[in-house]
Amino acid sequence: MPQHHLYQYQQDFRLESGAILPGFQLTYTTFGQLNPQHDNVVWVCHALTGNSDFTDWWCGLIGEGKLYDPADWFIICANTLGGCYGSTGPLSVNPATGKPFYHDFPEVTNRDIVAAFDLLRQELGLEEIHTVLGGSLGGQHALEWCIQRPTVFKRLIHVASNARHSPWGIAFNESQRMAIRLDPSWATDTETAGLEGMKTARAIAMLSYRHYASYDRTQQEPGNSITDNFRASSYQVYQGEKLAKRFNAYTYWILSKAMDSHNVARDRGSIEKALSQIKAKALFIGVDTDVLFPVAEQQFLHEHVPGSSFGLIHSDFGHDGFLVETDQITNTIRNFYEAEPVVALLCDDKER
Fold first, then answer.
1. CATH of the domain spanning 169-260
2. Distance between CA atoms of 4 and 14, rounded to whole angstroms?
3. What is the pLDDT of residue 343?
4. Tell me: the pLDDT tens digits for 184-223?
5. Which residues are catalytic?
6. Does the fold of domain 169-260 match that of domain 3-165+263-351?
7. The domain 3-165+263-351: what is its CATH number?
8. Is the distance from CB of 244 to CB of 199 less than 8 angstroms?
9. Is the model's pTM score more than 0.85?
10. How many CA atoms lie within 13 A of 60 on its CB side?
11. Which terminus has fewer CB within 10 Å in the chain: N or C?
12. Is 202 annotated as a binding residue?
C-alpha cells in the first residue's frame, strides 16, 4: 500500500518574489521500494487540485499490474507548496502570528514549488530520478525541474502541458478568480472564504478541461421536450459542489496564479535557450481535443528539445484526457521506454 510521509524544512525559505516563508512542510506519498542501485525512482507531479496520493487520480498508470508497478518502481509524489492536502498553504498556521495565513500567504511561483520539491529530494538522498512525470500544472513543474536540475533527471514525461502558460490559459484562470473575488465572503479571514465563488470557478474550469464532444455525449438530453433543468446545468453545479467538499478557495487562487507564472524563459533569455538546458530524454504527450493546453504547445516542446519524442492521445474528454485515457498513455510511455529515442509515437484509435 502507498505510504504517507511528512517532510519539514525548518529554515527560512526565500520565494522568487523576495518574500520569505519561515519554513514549510510537504506531505508526500511513496509506493514501492528503492532498489539497491537507487535507479528505479519515478517522481510524479500532480495537477492543480490533485494530492500526493497518485492512486487516487492516476490509478490507471500506477499500481499493481500497471505501468508503474510498485514491485518494480519506487514512486513518489509530494503535495505542492501552497496546497491543502497537508503541505504548507494558506490554512496553515503562520508562526509569526500563531494564526492561519489565510490571505497573507505569499505568492508562490512554479519555480518556488519546484525548489521545495528539490529540498525534499535532497533530504531523501535521491541523486538520480529515472523518470519525472506530470500532467497539466504537474507537467509545468516537471519541465521546470528538469531545467533547474538537468543532471538529476534521466527521463521527462510531460503530459498535456506547456513551456509558458498562454494568454488563453491565463484568461481562463483570471475568469475563475473573478468569480472568487465576487463572493462577499472572500474578504473575510475564515476557512470557508470564497467557497461559493470557487464553486463557480470550478464550473468555468470544466469548460476548459472538457470538450464539446464529451458534453454532447454525457450531458445530452434524452428527449426533445426539456426547456429547463438541463443535465448540463446540473453537471456544472455538481462539479462545483464536489470540489468545495475537498478544497479551499485560497489554494485554488494560489495555485492558479502559480500556473499563470509558468514561463521557462524568465531570466533565461528565451524559451529555446531554457529548453536547451534539458538533458533528460523527453516525451511530450498531447491530447487531440485539449483546448486549454492545445497540442501545438506539446509539438513546440518536441521541436525544441533535441532528441525528444512526441505522443498524441485521441480522446473526447479534452484536457481531462490526460487523466482518463490511461491505456493510451501507458502504451505511449512503454513505446518510449522500449525505443529511445524515437521521433514520434502516435496512438491509433483502436487503442482507445
1. 1.10.1740.110
2. 26
3. 40
4. 999 999 999 999 999 999 999 999 999 999 999 999 999 8
5. 136, 290, 319
6. no
7. 3.40.50.1820
8. yes
9. yes
10. 13
11. N
12. yes
